[in-house]
Amino acid sequence: MTKKDNKRRIAFEYEKEQAKRTKKERPQREVREEKEINENVIEGRNPILEAFDSKITVEKILVSKGDNQGSIIKIMSIAKERGIPVIEVDRRKLDTVANTPQHQGVVAYITPYRYVEVADILAIAKEKGEKPFVMILDEIEDPHNLGSIIRTAELCGVHGVIIPKRRSVGVNSTVFKTSAGAVNHMAISKVTNIARVIDELKEEGVFVYGADMNGDSRSHETNFSGGVGLVIGNEGKGLSRLVREKCDGIVSIPMVGKVNSLNASVAAGILMYEVMKSRL
Predict the structure, then answer these.
(1) How many Cβ atoms from other residues are within 10 Å of residue 277's Cβ?
(2) Which residues lie in Basic and acidic residues bias regions (predicted)?
(3) pLDDT per residue over 100-131, tens digit each?
(4) Considering just the CA atoms, what is the radius of gyration of the chain in Å?
């Protein structure tokens, strides 16, 4: 079997496994889809003010009638200066439009987040004269986890974050808020096949490590020099089988307490810090 044929086989197996898991969990997915988060809306006063200072294009703003105090005044003033429509609506309208009840009386419609290609992430590393440092998120579903990971990634010098198109949260208002603005400074790529992307990264000299409590080596003893890709699995199921098989190595984080697992974003943060230490 040629190298090309082997890649096709891996891709086929990945898609087959995804289809099987999707069919098995369809009832749960249907429930989630009823509450699907609108990625074209951000809410809350600070996230909207941060959006004004970013590359995000704010198309229009909805504010609760009569709520024109504090930072709402600043938001309305900036919007007026930039010619952004501001519409006063009943608070119940905001409750319907917003992704969460914590909208603080203001919601902004934005141009959809612009994802990049994996090649763009590698180009960022090359432009900086650095070895690639990439986070690969294998079906992270909690927007708070994604936002926290992006925030830590930006602080630790990660060049880009890769997420799958299916069975994964995308960049939405909760991610914007949780990342504390780091989304505006992080390249994020949304891909069809994580396993295939890992192959592509390997060809570019990136050594890919998966995170698992039953790892082959411990994080503080692992040599993270060179190009690095860190894979964090789903909050409940961990790494999918094919993605795990594609990793060059599996690392674990040593723990001495009675609880033997970590939140996905916390585990990601610890591992990113270990990579950053090796580069300081």
Answers:
(1) 11
(2) 8-33
(3) 888 899 999 988 888 999 999 999 999 999 99
(4) 20
